[in-house]
Amino acid sequence: MLRVVGNDAHVLIGGRTVTAPTHPVYNPARADEIVGQAALADEALVDAAVTAAAAAAPDWSALSVADRRAALKAAAAVALTDFDDRTRLLTREQGKVLWESVVDIAGAPYLLHESRRLVERAAGE
Fold first, then answer.
1. Which of 9, 30, 72, 104 has its CA 20 to 30 A from that of 122?
2. Could you tell me which of 91, 93, 84, 85 has the C-alpha nearest to residue 26?
3. Among the listed ranges 55-59, 93-97, 119-123, which one has the minimum average pLDDT value?
C-alpha cells in the first residue's frame, strides 16, 4: 500500500508504515504531465519488503483452504474497486489506449479468482 504525503511516500510493509522518498510519474504521451508520485525503493526498503513477505509465509501456509479462498476473494473485490479510475490512471501512466488498460486492470481479479480454484484443486490432491 502506498500513500503520498508531501514529498514522502508512506509504504505499508509487514503491517507497519515506512517512509520513502518519491519521484514523479510522467505521462509518456504528454511529457509535461505529471500523473502522480511513486515511492523510490532503495535496497533497504526492498530488503524490508522481502523479509516481511518471508516472515508472513508460514502464517499463510498454515491457513485452511477455506481461509485462503476467502482471502483471495477479498483481494479480488479490492482489485475491482475504483475500476474506471484505475483504468484511466494506468492509461495516463503508461501512455496506452484505454481498452488495453481495461484488460490489464481486469486481469488482477481474474488471476485472483483462478488462484482460488488452484488452492481448492491443490488441497484436493
1. 104
2. 93
3. 119-123
What would the grid cell of residue 57 be? 509465509
DSSP state for residue 81 in the 8-state scheme? T
Q: Kindly provide the residue ranges of all beta strands, DSSP E only, lying in the chain, ordered along the sequence.
A: 2-5, 8-13, 16-27, 30-39
pLDDT the model gives residue 101: 93
Distances (CA, A) of 83 to 25, 40, 79, 101, 105: 20, 25, 8, 10, 7
Q: How far apart are CA 39 and CA 45, in angstroms?
A: 10
17 and 11 in contact (C-beta within 8 Å)? yes
